[in-house]
């Protein structure tokens, strides 16, 4: 996908095909010869892990759809039929449900790695924006997928989330009814959510292709933030990155398998094993864990802001928390890419991580007592990080001295010698 | 692969005794009873102070019991499941359905095909329509599901003071007391997934206690105080079973405590019939992934040898 | 480039081969659940039996029952039809095997073996009764009763003709129509399955 090609077709068939449809060339240039910085740490393996999990989710999803019935009268029972009667149905369904969680674990590591190493900065703005679009599509897909088992949390989650749209004056109610296909969440809603839940992953796959394309145009960032300067700074994707990504994938799969086989309901909510009841809301409704920080921000706005009432305010703040990520490349004024050379920003980065975890914890708490006030503080800090800290810090911070090149940094750290692989990478796996 | 499965199960079960030896002596029990004790005090204090804010239910945390199906090598205690089925059939099924479980599933409890047929035939199942367009009753067959005691939720509610008795099929997964911080993090390591059975046992054995005066005021007429109930101080179900009510042929104690353990284990099986198969498959999968990861790590070392990075 | 030297795959390297083999085994094992889930599930496999009341089926009449999603023809044949079927030499049959689930797999396709008499109880009196899965063994259409050149069943899809014992006589179908497991529980009740 990038620049000139070094592919030399070896065998007759490959040569024949290459002259007609250069698929082998595309594959070779993208996944074999593609040069990657030699100093990438394990935080950089999560892109590959995400691709793997997109595959896992699509595969398990397609086979689950062979047994699932998207009808409000029988949806709940059809999921239980999968769990009880379908061969390996319990495994496929638990993989799909926990796969969503692990997809989000990986995407959060991937996003924070991008934040830490300045992966959003020029010339990678489009790469970053495509990533945020994938994140939004993932959230929509996960939300609609959670509705399908038609348990109590499915139903009331769908009710609450779709009610976001009623916050907008004038157009809110018509849009709400349009989304639901009725006046409340019901069979029509379930049907369209199933249709869209099946469609969106393929849209994600499409945007992922653009995301990888954009990546291969600019090349990876790396922990030093210094761009690749010569071929000494890089290694070929295969076998170096392939084997490292493969190792990380299998380790991540082992964690995934641990949850699927031993704690399959740990990340779920017991109320979703109760069939949806439109006349009774569960006493304490919470979204899936990966939405909790956003949920906390939604509930943090308990007061009117001028002409904007608290309901609309909460919705705007929640959407804004993702919207602000689109502008990140232009909000960060620092010329230094990697946080490793920004001593002050490093502190703020970890405060932001802690703030997001804090908001997640608040999202799981009932909206009473001191919690809404804490959520408001966390929300203000979240926006403050992007809208104040990032622009100002870049102007006032004194960065550390950058190495001349990736190779120089690597050799300095290794004392010029060849240390065994892995030993040097381990301390950098954070972020 | 189908032939492989029993082998996997056997492999999983072979390790079970070792796992139990550890579990029994582990710190689990102590910490559990401490938590139960700790859980009592704040709840009681809160109740005595009156209601500064909404009281949090349950008032008491359920006790954590030892279950044969807990942990990585968990397996069913078939004798216990059979006793639980007996309790369900003779007591609970008067009000609670179990519509997702079929009689044929009972073979997993160690019954033969003939026994299952005989068991199913004791039930009357509505079938039809026949050639005349009429619904008719017939004895159950293994492919039938447990019939529900009421024709629909409305009838169930009407016959029970407005509170429909919940179906048993999934109840062991649909009920669990919340695990606070940091307990829920330790649960990751202990693989605690027995919140449902613990809750059911605590609820059945939790009747007959004296509520504090503050709590007593908030008890609705026609409900029964139970500090383990998760959404109110009292529930509509009267104490469902008493000592000696169900006869056990295998000599197990005929006490409410034993009845509730057995029926809770049985409900866990009803809610998650593939639990043992899942854990045994998981054992093999984990071994494979760890070995494969180790090999990949060594290969990675070879590939990167001589490339400082 | 030094990197390239160490990266050159050494095909004799046991470690690489072992790792690849372990990965391949894992991939194949992981594929199996995705394939096996398409097989009939436990509820479908559960032995399903149906009881059919045949007290209203007079001589020369048939009814169709549904068993495991397929039609089962239950016919009380006329004496003439039975005679016709008995008169056929086994050597004339395209498929000489009874295809009767209640008999051994190689039982010959005599009229008795095709009829309910073969099923044991009260043999002679039941030879008039024919219970068979009404699905053409060619490509699964449902044949029309009492029609075709052998006055038995005739499949309109591709022209297979069966005789009065449901045996294939002409056309593309390879086998006689299948007899399901069944028995008379009383004189007027048949349990299929």
Describe this structure in words.
Chain A: Its main location: membrane. Chain A: This is Cytochrome b. Chain A: Pfam families: Cytochrom_B_C (PF00032), Cytochrome_B (PF00033). Chain A: InterPro entries: Cyt_b/b6_C (IPR005798), Cyt_b/b6_C_sf (IPR036150), Cyt_b/b6_N (IPR005797), Cytb/b6-like_sf (IPR027387), Cytochrome_b (IPR030689), Cytochrome_b_C_euk/bac (IPR048260), Cytochrome_b_N_euk/bac (IPR048259), Di-haem_cyt_TM (IPR016174). The complex is a heterotrimer of chains A (431), B (309) and C (193). Chain A is an all-alpha fold and 431 residues long. Helices cover 61% and strands 1% of the residues of chain A. Chain A starts with 11 loop residues before the first helix and ends in a 17-residue tail after the last helix. With 309 residues, chain B is mostly helical. Among the domains of chain B are: 25-54, no CATH class; 78-101 and 145-273, Orthogonal Bundle (Cytochrome Bc1 Complex, Chain D, domain 2); 279-309. Chain B has helices spanning 4-14, 16-25, 28-48, 78-90, 113-121, 153-159, 171-174, 183-190, 195-205, 213-217, 256-271, 275-304, and strands spanning 124-127, 136-139, 224-225, 234-235. Chain B starts with a helix and ends in a 5-residue tail after the last helix. Chain C has a single domain (44-192), classed as Rieske Iron-sulfur Protein (3-layer Sandwich). In chain C, 23% of the residues lie in helices and 23% in strands. In chain C, a hairpin with a 6-residue loop joins β6 (152-154) and β7. Chain C is elongated. Residues 1-7 of chain C have low confidence and may be disordered. The chains are: A mainly alpha (431), B mainly alpha (309), C alpha+beta (193). At the A-B interface, α4, α5, α10 and α16 of A face α12 of B.
């Amino acid at each position: 996908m990038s620049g000139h090609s070094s592919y030399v077709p070896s065998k007759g068939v490959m040569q024949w095909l290459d002259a007609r449809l250069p698929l082998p060339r595309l594959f070779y240039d993208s996944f074999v010869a593609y040069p990657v910085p030699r100093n990438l740490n394990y935080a950089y393996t999560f892109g590959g892990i995400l691709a793997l999990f997109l595959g896992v989710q699509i595969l398990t999803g397609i086979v689950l759809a062979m047994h699932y019935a998207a009808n409000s009268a029988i949806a709940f029972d059809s999921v239980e039929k999968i769990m009880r009667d379908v061969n390996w149905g319990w495994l496929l369904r638990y993989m799909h449900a926990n796969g969503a969680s692990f997809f989000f674990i990986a995407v959060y590591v991937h996003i924070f790695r991008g934040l830490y190493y300045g992966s959003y900065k020029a010339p990678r703005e489009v790469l970053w924006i495509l990533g945020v679009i994938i994140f939004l599509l993932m959230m929509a897909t996960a939300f609609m997928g959670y509705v399908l088992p038609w348990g109590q949390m499915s139903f009331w989650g769908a009710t609450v989330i779709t009610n976001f749209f009623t916050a907008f004056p004038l157009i809110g109610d018509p849009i709400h009814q349009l989304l639901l296909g009725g006046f409340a969440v019901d069979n029509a809603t379930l049907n369209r959510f199933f249709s869209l839940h099946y469609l969106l992953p393929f849209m994600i796959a499409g945007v992922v292709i653009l995301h990888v394309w954009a990546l291969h145009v600019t090349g990876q960032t790396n922990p030093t933030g210094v761009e690749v300067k010569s071929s000494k700074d890089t290694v070929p994707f295969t076998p170096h990155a392939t084997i490292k990504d493969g190792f990380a994938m299998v380790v991540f799969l082992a964690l995934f398998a641990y949850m699927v086989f031993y704690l399959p309901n740990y990340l779920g909510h017991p109320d979703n094993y109760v069939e949806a009841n439109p006349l009774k809301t569960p006493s304490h409704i919470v979204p899936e864990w990966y939405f909790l920080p956003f949920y906390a921000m939604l509930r943090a706005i308990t007061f009117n802001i001028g002409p904007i009432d608290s309901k609309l305010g909460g919705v705007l703040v929640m959407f804004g928390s993702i919207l602000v990520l689109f502008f990140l490349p232009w909000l960060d004024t620092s010329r230094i890419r990697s946080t490793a050379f920004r001593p002050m920003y490093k502190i703020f980065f970890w405060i932001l991580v802690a703030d997001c975890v804090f908001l997640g914890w608040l999202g799981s708490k009932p909206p009473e007592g001191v919690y809404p006030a804490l959520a408001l503080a966390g929300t203000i800090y979240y926006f403050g990080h992007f809208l104040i800290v990032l622009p100002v810090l870049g102007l006032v911070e004194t960065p550390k001295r950058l190495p001349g090149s990736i190779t120089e940094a690597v050799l300095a750290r290794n004392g010029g010698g060849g240390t065994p692989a892995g030993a040097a990478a381990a301390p950098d796996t954070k972020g | 692969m189908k032939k492989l499965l029993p082998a996997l199960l056997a492999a999983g079960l072979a390790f079970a005794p070792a796992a139990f030896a550890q579990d029994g002596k582990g710190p689990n029990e102590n910490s559990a009873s401490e938590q139960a004790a700790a859980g009592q005090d704040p709840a009681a204090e809160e109740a005595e102070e009156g209601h500064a804010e909404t009281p949090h239910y349950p008032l008491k945390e359920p006790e954590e019991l030892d279950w044969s199906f807990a942990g990585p090598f968990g397996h069913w205690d078939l004798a216990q499941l059979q006793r639980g089925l007996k309790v369900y059939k003779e007591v609970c099924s008067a009000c609670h359905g179990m519509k997702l479980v079929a009689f044929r599933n009972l073979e997993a409890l160690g019954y033969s095909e003939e026994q299952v047929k005989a068991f199913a035939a004791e039930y009357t199942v509505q079938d039809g329509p026949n050639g005349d367009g009429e619904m008719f009753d017939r004895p159950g067959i293994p492919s039938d599901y447990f019939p529900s005691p009421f024709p629909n939720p409305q009838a169930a509610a009407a016959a029970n003071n407005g509170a429909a008795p919940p179906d048993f099929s999934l109840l062991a997964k649909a009920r669990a007391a919340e695990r606070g911080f940091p307990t829920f993090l330790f649960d990751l390591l202990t693989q605690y997934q027995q919140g449902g059975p613990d809750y059911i046992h605590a609820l059945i054995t939790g009747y007959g206690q004296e509520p504090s005066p503050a709590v007593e005021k908030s008890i609705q007429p026609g409900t029964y105080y139970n500090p383990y109930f998760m959404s109110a101080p009292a529930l509509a179900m009267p104490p469902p079973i008493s000592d000696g009510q169900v006869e056990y042929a295998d000599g197990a104690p005929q006490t409410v405590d034993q009845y509730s353990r057995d029926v809770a284990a049985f409900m866990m099986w009803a809610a998650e019939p593939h639990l043992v198969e899942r854990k045994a498959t998981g054992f093999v999968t984990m071994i494979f992934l760890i070995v494969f990861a180790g090999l990949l790590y060594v290969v990675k070392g070879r590939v990167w040898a001589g490339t400082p990075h | 480039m030094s990197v390239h030297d160490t990266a050159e795959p050494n095909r004799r390297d046991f470690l690489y081969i072992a790792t690849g083999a372990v990965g391949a085994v894992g991939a194949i094992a992981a594929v199996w659940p995705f394939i096996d889930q398409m097989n009939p599930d436990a509820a479908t496999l559960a032995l399903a039996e149906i009881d059919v009341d045949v007290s209203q089926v007079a001589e020369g009449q048939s009814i169709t029952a549904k068993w495991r999603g397929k039609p089962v023809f239950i016919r009380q044949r006329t004496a003439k039809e039975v005679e016709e079927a008995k008169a056929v030499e086994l050597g004339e049959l395209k498929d000489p095997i009874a295809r009767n689930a209640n008999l051994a797999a190689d039982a010959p396709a005599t009229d008795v073996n095709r009829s309910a008499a073969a099923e044991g109880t009260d043999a002679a009196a039941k030879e008039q009764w024919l219970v068979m899965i009404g699905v053409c063994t060619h490509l699964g259409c449902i044949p029309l009763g009492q029609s075709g050149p052998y006055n038995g069943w005739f499949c309109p899809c591709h022209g297979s003709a069966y005789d009065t014992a449901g045996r294939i006589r002409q056309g593309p179908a390879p086998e006689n129509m299948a007899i399901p497991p069944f028995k008379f529980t009383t004189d007027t009740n048949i349990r299929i399955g």
